[in-house]
Amino acid sequence: MTTSCLFWTVWLKFRVTALFQHQYTVKPHIRTSIYCLTPIIHKLGVIKTLYHRAETIPSTEEAKSVEREHLKSALGTCGYKDWTFQKALKPRKDPSPPTQASTTSSSTRNFGITIPYVSDVSEKLKRIFGKHQIPVSLKLCNTLRQKLVHPKDKVPQRKQSNIVYAINCQDTDCDDYYIGETKQPLHKQMYQHRRPSSTGLNDLSVYTHLKAAKHTFEDKDVIVLDKEHRWFERGVKEAIYVRREEPTLNRGGGLRHNLSKSYEPTIRKIPRRLSCDVTSTIVTSQVKNTEPIQDQSA
């Protein structure tokens, strides 16, 4: 009699005979998803883990042989080369006892560094740093968790803080716009732009424009250009956007940072986020945020 049950990523199969036997097979749905763009040390770890399971779980030599052949075929389909199997399954040498020289060198060893993993690039950098006795750790920057797991709901734009923003009034004939930055939520900052100063002097340029031209704007018309939680860096980003976009409502000297003219060639190479017709940019952004996602297969 033979029976089977599902356990994590494998099917366990039991055969009740005079001698109790069991074997396992990798579930079909993960046979083509084992390989991914990860460091080579992770790929070798996958081979070691699966081959260890193939050697320990099946109870007969025939089942072990079948599973080893299956693993090599499945991993080979996923992109694993023959040399990865040879390297992962190579017997490890017994570590030699540390000598006085190695103890001395370990005390003066450089601190390791961590770099993001980029296929075929990070490995070369790791070898270069290794020649200078600098240990390197590779960090994955594009994982399934980052793509699929979002425990928090997206913050509405009007409640976002620590941002660089652009304001344009709703009048279609008006091309004036303003770029600023704020630490507080966007809707509170927009409230300050719509009211005069408490002293009646030095009103904000946006309020002056709205009062003189009798224009208005809504919070939904504000474009979030960038996000930055650090105070100094947020001011620098504001200065870069003002220099690149050249907003008409920004008064000279109103920025926290005045960038040197030596940055001008570099800033000019940055793509503009706002065109001359800012209204069309706002409408486009609104459509992207409000239109429901349609089925691409339709």
Proportion of beta-strand residues:
5-15%
Oligomeric category: single chain
- Regions with little confidence, pLDDT below 50 for 5+ residues: 4-10, 16-20, 27-35, 276-298
- Chain-averaged pLDDT: 75
Biggest sheet, spatial arrangement of strands: 1-2-3
Overall 3D geometry? Answer: elongated
Termini Cα gap? 49 Å
Number of helices: 11
Helix content: 25-40%
Rg measurement, Å: 31 Å
Major β-sheet profile: 3 strands, antiparallel
DSSP E strands, number: 8
Structural class: alpha+beta
Note the run of SSEs as H and E: EEEHHHHEHEHEEHHEHHH
Furnish the topology, listing elements before pairings:
Blueprint lengths: L1 E6 L2 E6 L5 E6 L13 H17 L4 H17 L4 H7 L11 H8 L5 E4 L5 H10 L4 E4 L4 H5 L14 E6 L8 E6 L3 H8 L11 H9 L9 E5 L3 H15 L18 H5 L9 H13 L8
Parallel strand pairs: 4-5
Antiparallel strand pairs: 1-2, 2-3, 6-7, 6-8
Helix pairs in contact: 1-2, 1-3
Summarize the structure.
By secondary structure, this protein is α+β, with helices and mostly antiparallel strands. The chain has helices at 40-56, 61-77, 82-88, 100-107, 122-131, 144-148, 186-193, 205-213, 231-245, 264-268, 278-290; strands spanning 2-7, 10-15, 21-26, 113-116, 136-139, 163-168, 177-182, 223-227. It starts with a strand and ends in an 8-residue tail after the last helix.
